[in-house]
Each structure stands twice: as structure tokens, then as C-alpha cells.
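Q: What residues go here?
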């Protein structure tokens, strides 16, 4: 009897410790059901392309990107190819040269157009690719060309040289305002008094270009992991929509990060954003 009482006391203490924990995240499937990280990894391993949608200044997003990549590398026998929104297509040569060890990281960081948070948030991924002999693809349109679309629409890109167009998806890109993410951008602009209808087109040319370079660099048997802002892949829209246009039969899975006041349950508005969703406390420290 004393043993049973002691056992129940230990269980009670453990349960009390669980309720007093302050977890950094909870992981859910698209329906809002809590899932184990290992189960997600097994599912992602069976995909052709995995999109990890991040909140750019959320440390859990960046930690998850690295951990998912590392763990998929361990178990995916065909190997990985990495790609990211944060690197522009005309920087592919310098990335390739750096990964081959032609020059030191300091030189790469000086010559490449890197995001301000590269060293804390993306350098670990680039270093992992280098150490593991993995290709890293710069998928995004050069920002100077996206800016042309923002000001002039798709037609503004016609003035570019054939050399410049090598870094952009074939023109003109398909553009469908029935795709919710673009419609939402127009509505958001109207609410802010901005009537620039080219704004969502600038987003679309980024999505189309990223899908184009993902498709161009895929290899049979290899899993392509792509890192991007969650808005580019949430709801299987954005890049995912364009990639499915190119290859309808691809198995694509998405991961996203959301911030909530209470992470014990996934809020209704955050369900179905992605196949797997990291819910992070709103109070989480930001990387910038």
C-alpha cells in the first residue's frame, strides 16, 4: 500500500511539473491535433518538396528549419537539396563557389547580398550545406526586378535583356486573382489607402520565380527543402500554387509558424495554414 501511495505521489509531482512548464512551442497538424516532432519528420521524409514557412524574426522558426533539415538529412537516403527565398538567383554562382570552398565565409558574406539577419538565422543552414556537400539554390528573383513589377507591373520586365531574364520565371507569369493570398493583398492595400494593383503582382513574380528555380533544380530521389516567409507557402498558395502548375503530381508538404497568446490549442484561424504548424507564444524573443 505504501508503494502505491508513493507511486501516485511521484506521478502527481510529474504532472504538476508538466503544468508548470513553459514550452517554447506546440506542434500541430493542419486540423489542430497535437503531433510529435518525430511523426512530422517521418511524413516530411516521404515528400518531394517541403516548404518551411518562417516568421522572419522568430527564433523558433529558424531553430525548426535547422533541426528539420538536419534530421531529414540523417534519414533521407536520396539526399537533400536546399533552397531559399533569402538568396537571389543572380547570386547562385557565388553560392556554388563558396560551397566548393573556393574562398572563406568572410569573403562570401562580403560579396553576396545577404539579409541583415544572415549570420544568426541563415548562416547555420548555409554552413550545414557546405559541410554536408548539399546544393543550396538561390531561388528568389533579384529584388531590383521585383521592384520594377511593383512600379510597372509584369510588362515592365519586357525591357530587360535576355541575360537579366535568366533570373526570372518565364514571362509573362500566370496570375490568378482567385488565389486568396493575392486578393488579400489587394484588400489590405485598399484598407490602407493604397490602390497600387501592382503590389500583389510583385509578390506573384517572386512566387513564380521561386517555383521555377525549385522545379529547375530538383533531382530524382532527392528531397528539396525550401525556406521562405510563411506567406509564400501558407494555405498551399504562393510558391506552392505555381509549383503545382509546373508539376501537378508532386507530393508537397508545408510547415508554418504562428504566434498565439495561448499555445495549448491551435486557434481556429490558424488551422489548415500548413500541414504542420509550430505555435509559438506571442512573448517569444525576436531575432531582430
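A:
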Amino acid at each position: 500500500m505504501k508503494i502505491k501511495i508513493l507511486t501516485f505521489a511521484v506521478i502527481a509531482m510529474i504532472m504538476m511539473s508538466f503544468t508548470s512548464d513553459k514550452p517554447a512551442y506546440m506542434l500541430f497538424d493542419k486540423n489542430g491535433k497535437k503531433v510529435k516532432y518525430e511523426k512530422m519528420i517521418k511524413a516530411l521524409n516521404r515528400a518531394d518538396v517541403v516548404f518551411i514557412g518562417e516568421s522572419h524574426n522568430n527564433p523558433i522558426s529558424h531553430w525548426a528549419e535547422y533541426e528539420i533539415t538536419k534530421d531529414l538529412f540523417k534519414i533521407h537516403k536520396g539526399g537533400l537539396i536546399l533552397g531559399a527565398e533569402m538568396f537571389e538567383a543572380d547570386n547562385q554562382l557565388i553560392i556554388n563557389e563558396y560551397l566548393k570552398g573556393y574562398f572563406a565565409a568572410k569573403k562570401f558574406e562580403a560579396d553576396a547580398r545577404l539579409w541583415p539577419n544572415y549570420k544568426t538565422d541563415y548562416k547555420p543552414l548555409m554552413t550545414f550545406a557546405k559541410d554536408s556537400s548539399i546544393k543550396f539554390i538561390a531561388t528568389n528573383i533579384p529584388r531590383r526586378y521585383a521592384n520594377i513589377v511593383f512600379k510597372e507591373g509584369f510588362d515592365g520586365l519586357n525591357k530587360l535583356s535576355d541575360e537579366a531574364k535568366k533570373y526570372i520565371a518565364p514571362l509573362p507569369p500566370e496570375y490568378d486573382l482567385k488565389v486568396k493570398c493575392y486578393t488579400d493583398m489587394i484588400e489590405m492595400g485598399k484598407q490602407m489607402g493604397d490602390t497600387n494593383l501592382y503590389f500583389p503582382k510583385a509578390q506573384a513574380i517572386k512566387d513564380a520565380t521561386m517555383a521555377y528555380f525549385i522545379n529547375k533544380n530538383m533531382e530524382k530521389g532527392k528531397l528539396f527543402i525550401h525556406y521562405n516567409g510563411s506567406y509564400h507557402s501558407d494555405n498551399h498558395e504562393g510558391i506552392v500554387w505555381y509549383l503545382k502548375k509546373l508539376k501537378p503530381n508532386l507530393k508537397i508538404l508545408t510547415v508554418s509558424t504562428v504566434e498565439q497568446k495561448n499555445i495549448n490549442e491551435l486557434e481556429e484561424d490558424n488551422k489548415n495554414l500548413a500541414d504542420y504548424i509550430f505555435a509559438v507564444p506571442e512573448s517569444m524573443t525576436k531575432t531582430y
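A: Context that may help when evaluating the design: The beta strands are 26-29, 49-54, 80-88, 135-140, 223-229, 252-260, 276-281. Residues 116 and 183 are 30 Å apart (CA to CA).
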